[in-house]
Amino acid sequence: MVDLEDSVLQGLLLNLVGEEGIKVITNMPEGEVTDEEVSQVTDVALNVVRRTLYILFENRLAFYRRERNKDSGWLTYLWKLDLSGINNLLDDQLIKLIKNLKTKLAFEDNNMFYICNNNCGRFVFDVVSETEFLCPICGDDVIFQDNEVVKQCLIKRINELEDP
Ligand SMILES: [Zn+2]
């Protein structure tokens, strides 16, 4: 059973489908339902319901079955929520996050950084060496920034995520 009270899961779902989408998920009827029924029950606009179901489908958290009406020939989509794959999704996101952090760390390792006296920004060596070590935005001096603290923070975060 998926615990929708879990803050990590909530954050993930919120990122995926937004607040209205969360309303759809928490109030969606059990079993197979059409998007129109979901809209009625949850009191969420039909287009938002459709968007939410589609996003959930793309992430394998909802599934549909098509049924053709014998008289009219119309297709009806019957939707069913299945959040059991959400932990896999969390794992995927975690792997992506760790990969991003490692890319950032490599960038920190491979570059020297300079910051502007006026806080315009943080620049790599290649940028400020072309402007004779003046800020490319305001023209003031830039100073070398030791990035050891930044690197240590990244390493700490990576270790925490890899070995919780
Ligand atoms: Zn500046």
Number of domains as seen in the coordinates: 2
- Class from helix and strand fractions: alpha+beta
Small-molecule components bound: zinc ion
Task: Give the integer mean of the pLDDT values.
Answer: 93
Number of strands: 5
CATH class assignment of the largest domain: Mainly Alpha
Strands side by side in the biggest sheet: 4-3-5
Specify Rg, calculated over alpha carbons: 24 Å
The ordered H/E elements are: HHHEEHEEHEH
Largest sheet: 3 strands, antiparallel
Primary descriptors:
single chain, 164 residues, alpha+beta, Arc Repressor Mutant, subunit A, 2 domains, 3-stranded antiparallel β-sheet, two-stranded antiparallel ribbon, 15% strand, elongated, binds zinc ion
Notes on the structure:
The chain is of the alpha+beta class and 164 residues long. It folds into 2 domains: 7-81, Arc Repressor Mutant, subunit A (Orthogonal Bundle), CATH 1.10.10; 94-162. The protein is 54% helix and 15% strand. Helix 4 (86-110) runs antiparallel to helix 6 (148-162). The protein binds zinc ion (ZN).
